[in-house]
Specification:
The two termini are about 25 Å apart. Strands 5, 6, 7, 8 and 9 form a five-stranded antiparallel sheet that branches. Strands 2-3-1-4 form a four-stranded antiparallel sheet, with helices on one face. With about 160 residues, the chain is of the alpha+beta class. The chain folds into two domains: about 70 residues, ACT domain (Alpha-Beta Plaits); about 70 residues, ACT-like. Chain A, domain 2 (Alpha-Beta Plaits).
Length: about 160
């Protein structure tokens, strides 16, 4: 089962390494990781996606709470939350496929952020399924390069 965990941490040197080390040292895999400063520049939020059963998640949560730099651990599984990812895709844009690529981007509310004679770079934001569907439609066109963020999430309400 996939778990999304938000961890509020002190925004200081080495925190990311300590949290990542906790996961790797205990044999837990991080599927995706996104870190950013909050409104308070002394605090960052880490959105971590990991895979495991409830027992694994409980172990991870206990270990995270033991770290001095951790302020709060929030398991979002079973709670209502909003999650998004962002992807930048550079796709080959031949003259005969340019209109189709733009049409697909428009359907997915994508934004063309760079144009060259041979490619388009498109930005799309959405949930994991939307990103996956968008990539599947662009694969036949020839994806040249891709950069994808991890999941970011906030509890509703």
């Amino acid at each position: 089962m996939l778990h999304t965990i938000n961890v509020l941490v002190e925004n200081e040197f080495g925190v990311l390494a300590r949290v990542a080390g906790l996961f790797s040292g205990r044999g837990f895999n991080i599927e995706s990781l996104s870190v950013a400063e909050t409104l308070d520049p002394k605090v960052s939020v880490m959105t971590i996606v990991t895979r495991g059963d409830d027992q694994v998640l409980e172990q991870i949560t206990k270990q995270l709470n033991k770290l001095v730099c951790v302020i709060k651990v929030m398991d979002l599984v079973g709670k209502e939350y909003v999650a998004r990812e962002m992807v930048l895709i550079k796709v080959a844009a031949k003259p005969e496929t340019r209109a189709e690529i733009l049409s697909i981007a428009d359907i997915f509310r994508g934004k063309v952020v760079d144009v060259s004679p041979k490619s388009y770079t498109i930005e799309v934001t959405g949930d994991e399924e939307k990103i996956k569907a968008f990539l599947e439609l662009l694969k036949p066109m020839g994806i040249k390069e891709m950069a994808r963020t991890g999941r970011v999430a906030l509890m509703r309400g």
